[in-house]
């Protein structure tokens, strides 16, 4: 369960650094504007590389948390074919349920607003500005982690990420780009919120990646990346060629790992590295904290095709 920031004091957690560190981390993040450029071949004046226009072919799959199936879960996403393609995921922070707030309302309204502003002149194809405008337009109570990626027809993928949704770029069977989760402390991600204590578009980690035809990207909520390792994502891509089938297979894999108490998931590895572990009596018996993490699982697979 992800923890909402309801009061500024909650940022200061027994497990975390003093509050001043959280604030400096936020400032550092807001200043960070990564530009990561990958290209498969270098061009020269004698042999100019003529790049065809590209766009995304997209497949999606959402599997709600087993206990939230009736309401569809608390993840939301949208896909747009505007320009080269726009994909986005928002993950509602589940801890709002304890405040009698439906955690699905904020991410759903946020995604609907973001979808409306995709072609907005002021947004001008900048996912960070899209986050700002969608956040300002969202009136529901709650909070969410959000990732938005916009592909330009020249192959530039612009990514803005607040929290622990994620994106991987895969080229020739290798992950060549990966987002990093942002968090205040374990299980309390950076989040866009209805409350003033949450993050803003300025806290987004912004990256530009140059994509080429044949590249594949995977975007997902933490329900995917907490339960599926990168090497498993790559293996799945080898088996399935169709984007819809790949998205479904990855979501099913995440779902089966999430329910498997024996699986040593990315989430349990991370938890143990943070000092969370099985009770002492279990450790004496040689047991450790393992298992997947039950959560809503959203997967968007995009393949770069010439258009
Ligand atoms: Mn989640």
Summary of the model, kept short:
Its cofactor is Mg(2+); Mn(2+). The chain is 26% helix and 27% strand.
Explain the layout of strands and helices.
Elements: H1 19-31, E1 33-35, E2 54-63, E3 75-80, E4 85-92, H2 105-117, H3 127-137, E5 143-151, E6 156-162, E7 166-171, E8 174-178, E9 183-185, E10 188-189, E11 192-193, E12 205-210, E13 216-220, H4 222-225, H5 230-239, H6 243-258, H7 266-273, H8 280-284, E14 297-306
Parallel strand pairs: 1-12
Antiparallel strand pairs: 2-14, 3-4, 4-5, 5-6, 5-11, 6-12, 7-8, 7-13, 9-10, 13-14
Helix pairs in contact: 2-3
Describe the fold and architecture.
With 307 residues, the chain is an alpha+beta fold. It has a domain at 16-39 and 52-213: PPM-type phosphatase domain (Phosphatase 2c, domain 1, 4-Layer Sandwich), CATH 3.60.40. It is built from eight helices and 14 strands. It has helices at residues 19-31, 105-117, 127-137, 222-225, 230-239, 243-258, 266-273, 280-284; strands at 33-35, 54-63, 75-80, 85-92, 143-151, 156-162, 166-171, 174-178, 183-185, 188-189, 192-193, 205-210, 216-220, 297-306. The strands form three sheets. Strands 1, 3, 4, 5, 6, 11 and 12 form a seven-stranded mixed beta sheet that branches. The chain has a five-stranded antiparallel beta sheet with strand order 2-14-13-7-8. Strand 9 and strand 10 form a beta hairpin. The longest helix is centred in the C-terminal third of the chain and has 16 residues, at 243-258. The chain starts with 18 loop residues before the first helix and ends with a strand. The structure holds manganese (II) ion (MN). Residues 91, 221-223, 295-296 line the site of manganese (II) ion.
């Amino acid at each position: 369960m992800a923890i909402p920031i309801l009061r500024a004091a909650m940022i200061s957690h027994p497990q975390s650094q003093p509050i001043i560190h959280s604030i400096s981390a936020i400032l550092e993040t807001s200043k960070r504007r990564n530009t990561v450029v990958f290209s498969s071949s270098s061009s020269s004046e004698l042999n100019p590389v003529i790049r065809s226009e590209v766009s995304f072919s997209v497949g999606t799959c959402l599997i709600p948390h087993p206990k939230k199936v009736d309401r569809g879960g608390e993840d939301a996403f949208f896909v747009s074919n505007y320009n080269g393609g726009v994909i986005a995921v928002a993950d509602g922070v589940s801890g709002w349920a304890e405040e009698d707030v439906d955690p699905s309302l904020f991410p759903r309204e946020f995604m609907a607003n973001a979808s409306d502003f995709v072609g907005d002149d002021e947004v001008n194809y900048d996912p960070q500005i899209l986050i700002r405008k969608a956040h300002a337009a969202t009136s529901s109570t709650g909070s969410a982690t959000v990732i938005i990626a916009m592909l330009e027809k020249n192959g530039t993928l612009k990514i803005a990420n607040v929290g622990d949704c994620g994106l991987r770029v895969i080229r020739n069977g290798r992950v060549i780009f990966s987002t990093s989760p942002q968090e205040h402390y374990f299980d309390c991600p950076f989040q866009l919120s209805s409350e003033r204590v949450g993050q803003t578009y300025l806290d987004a980690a912004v990256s530009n990646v140059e994509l080429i035809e044949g590249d594949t990207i995977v975007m997902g909520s933490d329900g995917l990346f907490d339960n599926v390792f990168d090497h498993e994502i790559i293996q799945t891509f080898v088996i399935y060629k169709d984007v819809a089938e790949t998205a479904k297979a990855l979501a099913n894999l995440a779902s089966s790992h999430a329910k498997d108490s024996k699986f040593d998931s990315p989430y349990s590895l991370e938890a143990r590295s943070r000092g969370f572990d099985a009770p002492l009596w279990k450790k004496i018996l040689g047991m450790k904290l393992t298992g997947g993490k039950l959560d809503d699982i959203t997967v968007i697979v995009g393949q770069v095709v010439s258009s």
